[in-house]
Amino acid sequence: MKTALRQATINSALTASALVLATLSNVAVADPVTQWGYSTNSTFSNPTWDGPAGIGGQQTATQYELSWGYSAGNFQTDTGNANTNRSALTIGNAVTGTTTGGGPATGTVNTTIGGTPNPLLGQIGTGISITHWNNPISSSYGTLTGARITDTLTLNPLLPSYYTTSVSAPTLQFNFLFQETANAGAYGAGGFGNAGSGYCADGSIGGNCADLFGFSNTLTLNNAFSYIDSGADGILGNADDFNRTYYASVFVLDESNQAFPLSQLTSKECQALGLGTSCYGFRTAEAAHTTAKFAFAITTEPFSVPEPGSLALLGTALLGLGSLRRRKS
């Protein structure tokens, strides 16, 4: 009797162990989505201005364009005259190469198995672009001081082919600040004080002050979302299905598809932007346009964030975006 009971106990334990191992095995072999079709778009909203448009001026605010300056001007052309110029921020489509008119941008992207995407393996998807059309503007025109950018991403699983349900990745939304200063430099030596004494915010001599975009606080990636993967049988709805967490991370690239030159700005530049004494950002040239292209990756593990100077990153925890550019006084 004792022997039979002992054998029954052993058999029960073995059965339980087998069930546990089977469950773990099913989880381990659940097939992730390896390729996605995507549609991504960004829009402007809630713009603010430092005053009225001004005599002969016009302020335009649409979902894909924020522009100001001379009403008959063209922000894509610098006339050489601050009274007849316009400046703008525009949203374009980095997939088609347009810098105005917005999205959506569409394409395919391969899933990164792990946390380090490889562009050579099709693991970086291209999205929209934002262009700063930086022309000298007369101080008689009211200029942009801030707005909001909202970025959406819809994913449609392509491989394996038995996945059919689309999913929306977390929406990215952040506010930005914008400020124009005198082209000749409105700061004192070393960037101290807004006294109009001919120095730029970084302390350099005025006349060629850098235009600045700045970000405050830690930039976060790894925006998590879930998708039910099938098990080894390739059939959704069976017991071996697995609710997998994926991570969407957004990058900023330049027009050559290299990491955008994001770096730590000086404390005075950050203060000029209204972002405290520590921030990351980049500088743009006067009488030129600068385009930043949004790109993204889908990973199965959290992405490890390197120094912003080596890889430009943008995420949902952006608390402030500032832009400082010159105005002709």
UniProtKB/TrEMBL annotation:
Signal peptide per UniProt: 1-30
Keyword terms, alphabetized: Signal
Pfam families: PEP-CTERM
Residues of the Ice-binding protein C-terminal domain: 304-327
Name under which the protein is recorded: PEP-CTERM sorting domain-containing protein
